[in-house]
UniProtKB/TrEMBL annotation:
The chain crosses the membrane at residues 34-54, 66-88, 100-119. This is Uncharacterized protein. Keywords: Membrane, Transmembrane, Transmembrane helix. It comes from the Bacteria.
Length: 254
């Protein structure tokens, strides 16, 4: 939902610009350009908010940035070849290389903004909502076996999908909290089940240090830590996780 709202929000200035060029309307072009600049400014402000409040990095991870750069490079090469071919293949009477070049350049710039700034905003927004949900869950003093460690499933849902979604993996995020008054080395083993209470497998977490009262996402061996922070899930599954049980090894930090 968050990603859909971000895409919808970003498409309005772009549509105004497109209609302005199609109708040769200076007013629409000016409104579209100013609204697009304002939209980019708002997006930067939102990134700064997530960075200052939640500590999210401003930019994508190195791996995701590299993928985005490769995609943009290939797109740029394709656009350049398209302009060159159109220039030599199109008759002079209908040739408008400048307009085509400007359109492709604007499209390239918009895709760059999407990759590096707009899509990450959607991911950060979704993840921030999950952290807020976790805070409310851990405020309730329940399911604490011995007053030490508590684990909760705060998210289990498929990835955003536009078509052919039947084979989508489910993203699952567990969080763990230290209820003691001292730092603890914690390692978890979690068994997960679907809605029919059929086992989906076991997850073993990496050892982590939790400060008193601290809660954080569970990082497992299956977690892809090369993804951006807001796209790091405990693990993925073929079905939604409905039930779970866990064991933990917790010892004070020395």
């Amino acid at each position: 939902m968050e990603m859909f709202i971000v895409c919808l929000f970003s498409s309005v200035p772009l549509l105004l610009l497109v209609f302005g060029f199609m109708r040769s309307s200076r007013v629409l072009k000016r409104i579209g350009l100013l609204s697009y600049i304002a939209m980019v400014g708002i997006v930067f402000a939102v990134h700064w908010y997530f960075h200052s409040v939640y500590g999210f990095p401003f930019f994508l991870s190195l791996q995701e940035s590299a993928v985005a750069i490769v995609v943009l490079f290939l797109m740029g090469v394709f656009f350049l070849l398209s302009v060159i071919i159109a220039h030599f293949k199109t008759p002079k009477s209908v040739r408008n290389t400048k307009a085509v070049s400007l359109f492709l350049l604007a499209l390239f710039a918009h895709v760059s903004v999407l990759c590096f700034f707009l899509f990450p905003v959607g991911g950060k927004w979704e993840y921030a909502n999950l952290l807020n949900r976790a805070a409310k869950v851990f405020e309730k003093e329940e399911n604490i076996r011995d007053g030490k460690i508590r684990v909760e499933l705060v998210f289990s849902a498929p990835r955003p999908c536009w078509r052919n979604c039947s084979d989508q993996d489910y993203r699952n995020l567990f969080m763990v909290k230290n209820y003691t008054n001292q730092p603890m080395h914690v390692q978890l083993k979690i068994e997960v089940f679907n809605a029919r209470k059929e086992p989906l497998g076991h997850i073993e977490s990496l050892e982590t240090i939790l400060q008193p009262g601290e809660y954080r996402p569970v990082i497992a061996k299956e977690t892809n830590e090369e993804h951006s922070v807001w796209d790091q899930w405990t693990f993925t599954s073929d079905e939604q996780v409905a039930y779970f049980r866990y064991w933990y090894d917790a010892r004070p930090e020395r």
